[in-house]
Design brief:
The structure holds two protein chains of two kinds. By secondary structure, chain A is α+β, with helices and mostly antiparallel strands. Chain A is 48% helix and 12% strand. Chain A has a three-stranded antiparallel sheet. In chain A, strands 4-5-6 form a three-stranded antiparallel sheet. Chain B has twelve helices and two strands. The longest helix of chain B has 39 residues. Classes of the chains: A alpha+beta, B mainly alpha. The interface between A and B is medium-sized, with 33 and 32 residues.
């Protein structure tokens, strides 16, 4: 670990390795920090501890088999992973899922966005020392996971949709359970905000920390709440509507000047907006089939496709090259966390050790998705 | 014979009682902490060991004592072993001067509810409790590891800066009481007929904030901020040695609460000690009054921990030097002027 500083005291700089077993690097991220006292001079991210070769697996499995594997990428938002891939293949096949399936997809994906943001909120607040928010957030997340469990039997790696639609019909009482959740949810978000939004310590810890200008964010390819926190109004749900998103009303929250507090506010607002979308969708789920008409064996024509969706963490893109067989010739994933993590180095420079933790938290990364 | 009883036997019994009861109190406090915070966070806390988790504080020390005691290879063995002890001893011996009740008589003999009444009691508490930080610095340094060193440096800086404001926040009370002895401070509150917190509200708030910072508790728990520095100064400590640090931290919480009660909240006195209409409150023994007040402040500690995020190192320094210290100085000056003007 140490290079030149044998006794620690002769050295003006200390190199500290944060992670991969550090309590707050969210998974197995390793950050090498060069410190001058408590101030960060330089940081380097070392990734790859969770590499499982997901993209290569996509070449060895049929399209249908590959879908559950994708749930293991961003395991916090498995539903989004599933949706993006299913839609990409549907595009390749030239089919669209029936409206009923589209609506179920939107409801599930938005619920998943809420649960992903809740987990982010909890861990981010915990990193900054506010432990109670963590447990409150998990209380609500539990309700969402119960809905998932009732729907498809799994809570985390759900494999919620199929290529061409959804497999399962919504269960009895689904609407009521979702409505009950939506009824309490805004009050609970108010609760988190009571604990944090106007808390002097919270503002002190997040305002002006890890500022990412709009230009830097675009240059680095940052997407999702991290980009919107810098004031760029870019959300694929509005910019390039997919699934049934064009049928719902919702706002895209943005923040200025792009510090940790802005990203916090953006995500809080996004949870409220996601709840708004679900509330609209749940009231008008159309009748009809769940699956599009298609052959049992999925053999897309030769060609390639890039399809991206707005995952909770940013733009999740799939680039699929088909050689006409049942397996992809190349399945490339553009994971939002991987790209967003690039900004870390720029954001931490000159800050204190404590801020590094806040900045890692505010980027909302999932290592399963970065390493794949 | 009398000399032996008065100056050897009785103090020894009292010391033994403190040494025996304090760890038990700490054990109870850990359970209380877990339960209180659990209820604030809509969960149950420990429920497995014993009914309602009541035996948890017994299971925890047993686990810690039975664990392997690891000393890192490159650590400075002597200092590494000594540091937790240096941390623990001051936490215990400050309690010697804190009076927990009125003098009672046992077998016709007056027995005071403190080990000794030093005429420089406040000074004794301040000086002894500042020795504790030495244990933390030495522990972090002797570990010969980076995170503990950072944690130790943080806590050294933190404790030194907050000790200054802490000292100044007490001076108002000392001027009112005209004594450094903790017993006479309580007694003068009785003579005044009012707790000093009503004369010194600012002083009390400053004292308690600094006290929380002194004990490294949330929101000032930087030295052991687990999300940043893993476990801070005690990262390399395990088993029994870790439990000594732990014991010291909780004992210090009790000490700070007891000091706050003694200096500002009338010690063992009942509310409005001179209002005879409330004399029925005297049915509750003074010791219980004292304990109840201490418990309230310990509850505040837990409440803080459940509610607030953690300060950052530079913000902590800023609060200490730029806000608390000037306020404490202003408090001293205003009190001095008022004392001179009103006492004439």
């Amino acid at each position: 670990m140490s290079t030149k500083d044998e006794t620690l005291f002769d050295a003006s700089e200390v190199t500290v390795s944060m992670g991969p077993q550090h309590p707050s690097t969210h998974g197995v991220l390793q950050v090498k920090l060069r410190l001058d006292g408590e101030r960060v001079i330089d940081a380097e991210c070392i990734i790859g501890y969770l590499h499982r070769g997901v993209e290569k697996l996509g070449e060895a499995q049929t399209y249908g088999q590959f879908v559950p594997t994708l749930d293991r990428m961003d395991y916090i938002a498995a539903v989004s992973n599933c949706l993006g891939f299913c839609e990409a293949i549907e595009k390749l096949l030239g089919i669209t899922a029936p409206p009923r399936a589209q609506y179920i997809r939107v409801i599930m994906t938005e619920l998943n966005r809420i649960s992903s943001h809740l987990l982010w909120l909890g861990t981010h607040a915990l990193d900054i020392g506010a432990m109670t928010v963590f447990l409150y957030a998990f209380r609500e997340r539990e309700e969402i996971l119960k809905i998932f469990e009732n729907y498809c039997g799994a809570r985390l790696t759900t494999h919620m949709f199929r290529i061409g639609g959804t497999q399962y019909e919504i269960y009895d009482g689904f609407q009521n359970q979702v409505r009950a959740f939506l009824k309490d949810f805004p009050r609970h978000v108010d609760e988190y905000e009571t604990l944090l939004t106007e808390n002097r310590i919270w503002i002190g810890r997040t305002r002006g920390v890890g500022v990412l200008s709009a230009k830097d964010a675009i240059d680095l390819g940052v997407t999702g709440p991290a980009l919107r926190g810098s004031g760029v109004d870019w959300d694929l749900r509005k910019a390039k509507p997919y699934a049934a998103y064009s049928e719902f009303e919702f706002d895209i929250p943005t923040g200025e000047p792009g510090d940790t507090y802005d990203r916090y506010m953006v995500r809080i607002q996004e949870m409220r907006q996601a709840a708004r979308i679900v509330a609209q969708a749940i009231e008008k789920i159309p009748d009809g089939p769940l699956m599009a008409k298609m052959s049992k064996i999925i053999k897309p024509p030769i060609g390639d496709i890039y399809h991206s969706i707005e995952a909770p963490k940013g733009e999740l893109g799939y680039y699929i090259v088909s050689d006409g067989s049942t397996q992809a010739y190349r399945a490339r994933v553009r994971p939002p966390s991987f790209v967003n993590l690039q900004a870390l180095k720029k954001m931490v420079k000159g800050h204190m050790v404590a801020d590094v933790v806040a900045i890692i938290g505010t980027l909302d990364i999932v290592l399963g998705e970065i390493d794949r | 014979m009398d000399f032996a009883i008065n100056y050897v036997l009785i103090p020894l019994i009292k010391i033994a009682l403190i040494l025996a009861i304090l760890p038990l109190l700490v054990a109870a406090l850990t359970l209380a902490e877990r339960k209180v915070i659990a209820f604030m966070q809509v969960r149950l806390g420990p429920m497995r060991v014993g009914p309602w988790g009541l035996l948890q504080p017994i299971a925890d020390p047993i686990k810690l004592l039975l664990k392997e005691d690891i000393i890192p290879e490159r650590a400075d063995r002597w200092i590494f072993t000594l540091a937790p002890v240096i941390c623990l001893i001051p936490a215990f011996i400050v309690l010697a001067v804190i009076p927990i009740g009125r003098t009672i008589s046992v077998f016709g003999k007056p027995v005071t509810m403190y080990v000794t009444d030093l005429n420089i009691g406040v000074l004794y508490v301040l000086s002894i409790s500042s020795v504790g930080v030495l244990g933390i610095i030495l522990g972090g340094w002797a570990s010969n590891s980076k995170y503990p060193l950072l944690g130790a440096l943080r806590s050294a800086a933190q404790m030194v800066s907050y000790e200054v404001a802490l000292g100044f926040s007490i001076i108002g009370v000392l001027m009112l009481a005209g004594s450094l002895s903790l017993v006479s401070i309580v007694e003068s509150q009785k003579n005044e007929g009012i707790w000093y917190v009503f004369f010194q509200p600012l002083g009390f708030i400053l004292f308690f904030i600094c006290g929380v910072a002194e004990t490294n508790r949330a929101p000032f728990d930087l030295p052991e901020a687990e999300s940043e520095l893993v476990a801070g100064f005690h990262t390399e400590y395990s088993g029994f040695r870790f439990s000594l640090f732990f014991l010291a931290e909780y004992a210090n919480m009790i000490t700070v609460s007891a000091m706050a009660v003694t200096l500002f909240w009338g010690g063992w006195l009942r509310p409005f000690p001179n209002v005879s209409a409330l004399a029925f409150l005297d049915l509750i023994p003074p010791v219980l009054w004292f304990a109840a007040k201490v418990v309230v402040f310990l509850y505040f500690y837990l409440w803080f921990r459940a509610s607030w995020p953690r300060y950052r190192y530079d913000q902590l320094m800023k609060v200490g030097w730029q806000i608390l210290l000037p306020l404490a100085l202003a408090n001293v000056i205003v009190t001095a002027i008022l004392v001179v003007l009103l006492r004439k």
